[in-house]
Amino acid sequence: MGSSVRGKDSKAVKTTTSPAMFLLSNHRDLCLTRANDAQVSHDDPVKTKCKGRIEVEHVISKKLQLKKKAEYLKSDLMRQFDTQVNDFMDSLIEESTSLEPAPVPAVFSPPMSDKERSKLRHFRPPHGEGKLFVSRRSLLDELFEVNHIRTIYHMFIALLILFILSTLVVDFIDEGRLVLEFDLLVYAFGQFPLVVCTWICMFLSVLFIPYTLFYLWAQSHSGSHSHLRLYSLLFGTLFLLYQALGLGFLPTYTVVTNSFPPASCFIIILEQVRLMMKAHSFVRENVPRVLAWCKEKNGPGPVVPQVSQYLYFLFAPTLIYRDKYPRNPVIRWGYVVSKLLQVLGCLFYAYYVFVRLCIPQFRSISLQLFDLRAMVLCVFNSILPGVLVLFLGFFAFLHCWLNAFAEMLRFADRMFYKDWWNSTSFANYYRTWNVVVHDWLYYYVYRDFLWISQKRCRPAAMLFVFTVSAVVHEYILAICFGFFYPVLFCLFMCFGMMFNFILHDKRKGPIWNIIMWTSLFLGQGVIICLYSQEWYAQRYCPLKEPSFFELLKPRSWSCERPDDRL
């Protein structure tokens, strides 16, 4: 690596000196030209005036050519220098992330004390290799410090202002007054007190039941009990029953029987999935520690996390359990308020996107019979609202919401996402879009599958990860929308798997990034179009006594009944 860097530096130096040599060479030629012209003028006084004019024109032409070449060389030099610096920094970052944590040399900072080293060990996985938490900022927080990137953020704010103005103007023209009734938001977040009560019951059950079961199981291994496998089978069965019934069935039953509206339903179901993943991570990370203690007997008893550590993990914006995480020294409450206000702004932004771009279109389209031409037009008309919803969901949740909670908890590792927008392959996009969920799937689904199969079925492990992700996503949408329409599941399992192998990590270059964005835009248009059509078809053409087959069949394929209901 050192020789490569020196080679790049020598190349940069060589490129840097070439403009100077070029200037000296042109200056010498210009002086010789002037001397020759002066000699001719001295020998022939009649031509002095003509030669003087020619000399001026020659000098001006030389200067213009020199200026153009200097500007070209300057731009080329800066482009080469920027490319070399970026390549060097990328390689440096890649090598530094692959290194094991070690005391920093004294050239950069004072050597780490024994206390700091022991504190760093808490951030490492309790067993084997796993995710290492380090203190770092979110990528958008760093990018927004650049004026050019912040201008894009300002453009989205300007678009929101235009949405608000257009809605107010249309309402004033139609109604003769300003209508500020946000009826869609009121409907979407209906039954909110019941939502809060359901969430409190879910959270308290996750706080006490998994921890108690794990504590009792660990204590059974600390004594001289016999039948340890029977204890493990008993507590493992109880934990799985709690995951399936206590967290899996009861919240879903509450949502379905009380007919929660979409936004309220999303709150409960997403929290259900999050808490199930956290409970699994807590048990998965701590069971090997107890088994290792039973094997080595290197202490008075197995290491059982404190309740406060488990409670902190339940609120922390990560799905990977650790006893301790890197923490910031203070809480910036101004930063917390700004992020929560941005979440609120994104909520109103989504409201205006649906009011101005989705509802007027799908309310009329859903009255028509299923037609290929109408479907194609619907998909392309849905790309803009679909992309806006994608950006809003990413910015509101993965950036603002998670950073707000991270700041309140002084959680220092803010890498909730990476630069997914620069992806040239869908494999890289899946890894960088949502790092929080990707880490859980990688460590607890993909790697555990390889461990069970003894690393002999990597394609099967990848297929299993895609299947789990697709099933969970479709489950969330089916429960929250109130109908089964496996559009997202098919996109995941068919096109997602296909693009994952076709657009793999070896695909580099801008053209592959364009292909990735084009596919992403079309996918968002398909999702918004089909789910919106089915939503209105379910309301325009309700079935009084549907059979099981009729529940699985999309209603939008056969709905022709006109109705003016929302």
UniProtKB/TrEMBL annotation:
Catalytic activity: (9Z)-hexadecenoyl-CoA + cholesterol = cholesteryl (9Z)-hexadecenoate + CoA; (7Z)-octadecenoyl-CoA + cholesterol = cholesteryl (7Z)-octadecenoate + CoA; (9Z,12Z)-octadecadienoyl-CoA + cholesterol = cholesteryl (9Z,12Z)-octadecadienoate + CoA; (11Z)-octadecenoyl-CoA + cholesterol = cholesteryl (11Z)-octadecenoate + CoA
BP GO terms, sorted: cholesterol efflux; cholesterol metabolic process
Membrane topology: Multi-pass membrane protein
Transmembrane segments: 152-173, 193-218, 230-250, 333-354, 374-402, 483-502, 514-533
GO terms for cellular component: endoplasmic reticulum membrane
Molecular function GO terms recorded: cholesterol binding; cholesterol O-acyltransferase activity; fatty-acyl-CoA binding
Cellular location(s): Endoplasmic reticulum membrane
Similarity comment: Belongs to the membrane-bound acyltransferase family. Sterol o-acyltransferase subfamily.
Name of this chain's protein: O-acyltransferase
Gene (name only): SOAT1
